[in-house]
Amino acid sequence: MSKTLISNIENFPTRTPLEIYNSVNERYKENPNGFSFWFNRIKEVKEFKQPKTAVIPIDFELYNLIMNVYDFVYDAEEECREKLTERIEDARIEAGIEYPMFMKTGLFSNKFEFHTCLQLYKEHVADHYLNICYAAMCMSCDNATEIVIRELIKVKPFMYLYEGLPMNMEYRCFVNFNTKKIVAINDYWHESIQNDIPTSQKGSFLMMKSRQAEAYDRYKEIVIEKLNKDMDNFHLSGSWSVDIMVDIFGDLWITDMAIAPQSWGRHLLTEQERIDLDAK
Fold first, then answer.
1. Calpha distance 262→280 (Å, rounded)
2. pLDDT tens for the chain, residues 1 to 280
3. What is the rounded CA–CA span in Å between residue 47 and residue 110?
4. pTM of the predicted protein model
5. What is the longest distance spanned by two Cα atoms in the chain?
6. Distance (Å, rounded) from C-alpha 112 to C-alpha 120?
7. 3-state secondary structure string across the chain
8. Which residue in 55, 57, 83 sits closest to 69, CA to CA?
9. How far apart are CA 243 and CA 239, in angstroms?
């Protein structure tokens, strides 16, 4: 090993666990994709429903326990499970959320392994949350210092993709809140994903897309109307994606948001739509 490399290793800056936590926490608070960032700015929206939600802050004590689990620290896992279960269950009861419910970090839900974000029993929430965090790290997603649990929206899925992910009537809307303009509305389950799903599911996927086409167009017009009515109640600036789902009763729900430059589906927009999305 070279002397230069040894010197670099020896002089590598070290940080205490608390310093690491504070850095992660500050970065998360400044991330517009973080759940609380956008969720707290759409509470005056009237035209769309929103699920009952509880946001559980992850303090240094809990963050350190979670990190110790991944570092295989002796006895950390049992204590971490107990703390996670206690805090999630207390928040669930206070918010009036019933099982089954949906769970994610402030930035990641691991929907491709849907059993981890779908919570059926109290006994599984801690293990599922740890699995979600691990999957987020594997996907190079930033750590979040929040746990989010939400009421499960009543839907009648057309089919299930990947490992149990329900395929519903959903829209990804690209909106420029600077110009108050709906730039584009895409199918959340765009046909272009057919090459990314298991071969055994491709035929059923295309058949269901064909069957729901008429209803999709009908609800799309309602989404446009409601978004335009509610535009001033989104206290956001810049360009965003807004995900909207239709439930079993035909009601519309906002389920997620993200800044448009980091949202899947931007590549499907026309050149003019991208210009309109980026307009100041």
1. 18
2. 455 545 554 555 688 999 999 999 999 999 999 999 999 999 999 999 999 999 999 999 999 999 999 877 767 889 999 999 999 999 999 999 999 999 999 999 999 899 999 999 999 999 999 999 999 999 999 999 999 999 999 998 888 988 888 999 999 999 999 999 999 999 999 988 888 888 888 899 899 889 889 999 999 999 999 999 999 999 999 999 999 999 999 999 999 999 999 999 999 999 999 999 999 8
3. 28
4. 0.91
5. 69
6. 17
7. CCHHHHHHHHCCCCCCHHHHHHHHHHHHHCCCCCHHHHHCCCCCCCCCECCCEEEEECCHHHHHHHHHHHCCCCCHHHHHHHHHHHHHHHHHHHHCCCCCEEEEECCCCCHHHHHHHEECCHHHHHHHHHHHHHHHHHCCCCCCCEEEEEECCCCCCCEEECCCEEECCEEEEEEECCCCEEEEEEECCCHHHHHCCCHHHHHHHHHHHHHCHHHHHHHHHHHHHHHHHHHHHCCCCCEEEEEEEECCCCCEEEEEEEEHHHCCCHHHCCHHHHHHHHCC
8. 83
9. 13
Burial of 3 (0-12, 13-18, 19+ CB in 10 A): exposed
Amino acid at position 252, single letter = L
Question: Tokens 């017009």, residue?
Answer: 221
- Tokens 């190079």 correspond to what residue? 140
- Say if residues 96 and 52 touch (Cβ distance below 8 Å): yes
